[in-house]
């Protein structure tokens, strides 16, 4: 009996292989259970602040001061959004922000990708020193005052071009796109050259279509940065109202609501007899929702490319 239990053969090997999945079947179940619970908690922690902001934006300002708002407004109202859109300048500022975001994103993507392709070519003699110069700009900055005087000397003060020209090329985006181009097989470029294609045609017909994932990721980063930017409008175009951006107008609205009265409740000037009071907290919540909607609308269409683009450099040929 002892020899039978100790001897091994094809039958015993099959028996052991059949027992192993059963013996380890509990471990995947425990891992999946804890992983699911952790992800649910993470989703709740991530989404709750934004959901609470939406609730506050739809709640009466005076009632918001009491606190205790969670997932549903106690006193539903639209006065917070009416206060945000009460100024007629908000619509023109919205158009300026849209134009700035679209133009800046397209120019940054096209020019940065073209430069990244040039610096990725091993036959280009000056690719290393030029890359070093761009990398240095990521670590060293002249500062706010020299930057302002530079824009002034270039006659960009109170000009729409001040939103576009300084952001045409990004050193960080350049490194990311160049790294992605390195993963494209060199045989594709050589085949295009054999067919008689020049550098620009190779860039336009071969490189650019194959870079869609990383370009979508970079485009999202550039668009969010351009859409949320307000400080450059404050520095360079604050004296010209027709060039004001949406974020700058919302910032001015928030500042005025906080400084209008020592009392935290500030009247929005709508229906003085039955006006619903708004507070800086409720105005801030409404501003956050208004500023976030365009990005939330665009993101689902770019999510597929965004997820792929985040894996740049993780898989090598």
From TrEMBL:
The chain crosses the membrane at residues 29-51, 94-117, 129-149, 161-181, 202-227, 281-301. Its main location: membrane. PANTHER family: ABC TRANSPORTER PERMEASE PROTEIN MG189-RELATED-RELATED, POLYGALACTURONAN_RHAMNOGALACTURONAN TRANSPORT SYSTEM PERMEASE PROTEIN YTCP. One of its GO terms (biological process) is transmembrane transport. It is a multi-pass membrane protein. One of its GO terms (cellular component) is plasma membrane. Keywords: Cell membrane, Membrane, Transmembrane, Transmembrane helix, Transport. This is Sugar ABC transporter permease. Residues 1-22 are annotated as: Disordered. The keyword Transmembrane applies. It is found in: Cell membrane. Belongs to the binding-protein-dependent transport system permease family. Pfam families: BPD_transp_1 (PF00528). Residues 1-15 have a biased composition (Polar residues). It comes from the Bacteria. Residues 94-302 form the ABC transmembrane type-1 domain.
């Amino acid at each position: 009996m002892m020899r039978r239990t100790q001897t091994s053969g094809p039958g015993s090997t099959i028996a052991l292989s059949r027992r192993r999945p059963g013996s380890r079947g509990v471990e995947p179940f425990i891992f999946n259970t804890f992983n699911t619970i952790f992800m649910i908690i993470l989703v709740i922690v991530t989404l709750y602040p934004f959901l609470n902001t939406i609730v506050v934006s739809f709640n009466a300002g005076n009632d918001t001061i009491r606190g205790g708002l969670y997932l549903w407004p106690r006193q539903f109202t639209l006065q917070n959004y009416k206060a945000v859109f009460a100024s007629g300048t908000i619509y023109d500022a919205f158009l300026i922000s849209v134009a700035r975001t679209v133009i800046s994103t397209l120019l940054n993507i096209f020019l940065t990708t073209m430069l990244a392709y040039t610096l990725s070519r091993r036959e280009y003699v000056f690719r290393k020193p030029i890359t070093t110069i761009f990398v240095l700009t990521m670590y060293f900055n002249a500062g706010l005052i020299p930057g302002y005087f530079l824009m002034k000397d270039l006659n960009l003060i109170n000009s729409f071009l001040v939103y576009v020209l300084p952001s045409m090329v990004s050193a960080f985006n350049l490194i990311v796109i160049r790294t992605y181009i390195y993963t494209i097989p060199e045989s594709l470029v050589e085949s295009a050259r054999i067919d008689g294609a020049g550098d620009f045609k190779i860039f336009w017909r071969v490189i650019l279509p194959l870079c869609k994932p990383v370009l979508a990721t970079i485009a999202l980063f550039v668009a969010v940065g351009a859409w949320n930017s307000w400080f450059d409008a404050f520095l360079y175009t604050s004296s010209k109202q027709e060039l004001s951006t949406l974020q700058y107008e919302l910032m001015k609205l928030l500042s005025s609501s906080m400084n209008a009265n020592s009392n935290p409740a500030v009247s929005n000037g709508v229906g003085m007899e039955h006006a619903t009071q708004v507070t800086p907290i409720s105005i801030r919540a409404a501003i956050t929702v208004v500023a976030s909607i365009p990005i939330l609308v665009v993101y689902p269409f770019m999510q597929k490319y965004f997820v792929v683009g985040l894996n740049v450099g993780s898989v090598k040929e």
